[in-house]
Specification:
The chain is of the alpha/beta class. It is 41% helix and 18% strand. Keywords: Signal.
Length: 337
């Protein structure tokens, strides 16, 4: 397993070569529209495969707001949250809109994993890959008033009473679930995964004492961390994060270097999206990622790594990643055969 996660991290590092002005100092384009050609003629539907309040929801709303207020899209956006089926409901909906150039969907590698694990009738490769916009990190958090204070206490409790420790996560077969499976395998403990439709639901369960730990992106828990309600106890990232999360240990520091998972944030379109629309969204998203607002209010605020890949680059990247996800989930026993 270690070699697979080393390969994934290497692919992330290689992809970082594709960083654009989103991480540089270039000013946003003076042009308020995209280059000539196709443009949306009606409001753009923006599908989010989870309930409001999570990282995908935040991602969609930030892109939509910057794109419209910045003049990079002549039409506004309507965010449509479609939780269910660990992403499968939204994926199936997108498939029914084949050829519709005015529908987008937030996509991250956890949703790609979920559709593979759950054998969904529609998978990411059936849709149209659009740009990658960031790499995200993951944290294991506790309720500050909860009974456990560290990973070490969790291990001790799980060994003393197998199955008693409950870990909350958003959906099945995604990066949250993979984090859980990695802990179960490499900590060598019997722990219980409690599945929710979104990180917002997971947070409510953690605050309510219904689960002992929750798995979140920084953007999904920073408010509760600032309020003193939640405390991150470990990060699944390769290195420590910054700012409010600078003191959070990596699993490598705790003694488990194989527990390493990163999320990739991107967009997708309907099957058969036109080449002209793809070019429009490539240009629109590039301009969004070049703005100071994106850099400060999204990337920096949410402790993300800035990345931009065109639709073509994203397709190549995810085609390769999907092969790795199949192998990884087979190795940990989530996918059989």
């Amino acid at each position: 397993m270690k070699q697979w996660f080393s390969v994934i991290c290497a692919s992330f590092m290689a992809a970082s070569v594709l960083l654009t002005a989103c991480s540089g100092s270039a000013a946003p384009s003076e042009s308020k529209g995209t280059s000539g050609g196709w443009a949306p003629k009606s409001e753009i539907e923006f599908v989010v495969p989870s309930a409001p309040g999570g990282g995908s929801d935040t991602n969609a709303r930030m892109i939509a707001d910057i794109a419209f207020t910045g003049g990079f899209s002549p039409k506004n956006f309507k965010v449509n949250n479609m939780p269910g089926g660990s992403g499968g409901v939204a994926f199936s909906y997108m498939a029914t809109k084949k050829g519709n150039d005015e529908i987008l969907m937030v996509l991250h590698n956890g949703q790609i994993m979920s559709t593979l694990v759950n054998k969904s009738p529609v998978v990411a490769s059936d849709l149209t890959y659009l740009p990658v916009v960031a790499f995200d990190n993951l944290l294991l958090c506790i309720n500050k008033n909860g009974k456990y204070k560290s990973v070490e206490e969790m291990i001790e409790a799980a060994k003393a009473n197998p199955g008693s420790v409950k870990i909350g996560g958003s959906q099945r077969g995604n990066t949250d679930h993979l984090c859980f499976e990695m802990m179960r395998k490499y900590l060598n403990v019997d722990i219980t995964y409690v599945q929710f439709n979104s990180s917002g639901e997971t947070m409510s369960a953690l605050l309510g004492g219904h689960v002992d730990f929750g798995i979140f992106n920084p953007s999904e828990c920073v408010g509760q961390v600032e309020a003193g309600e939640i405390q991150p106890t470990a990060t699944f990232a390769e290195n420590r994060l910054s700012g409010k999360f600078a003191e959070v240990r990596t699993f490598k520091e705790i003694g488990y270097p194989d527990i390493l998972v990163t999320e990739v944030r991107a967009l997708a379109g309907t099957p058969g999206m036109s080449a002209e629309a793809i070019a429009f969204y490539d240009d629109m998203i590039r301009k969004v990622t070049e703005t100071e607002r994106w850099k400060t209010e999204y990337i920096e605020k949410n402790y993300l790594t800035p990345v931009y890949m065109t639709s073509a680059e994203a397709k190549k990247f995810f085609d390769e990643e999907t092969q790795k996800y199949n192998s990884i989930f087979k190795e940990v026993g989530i996918i059989q055969g």
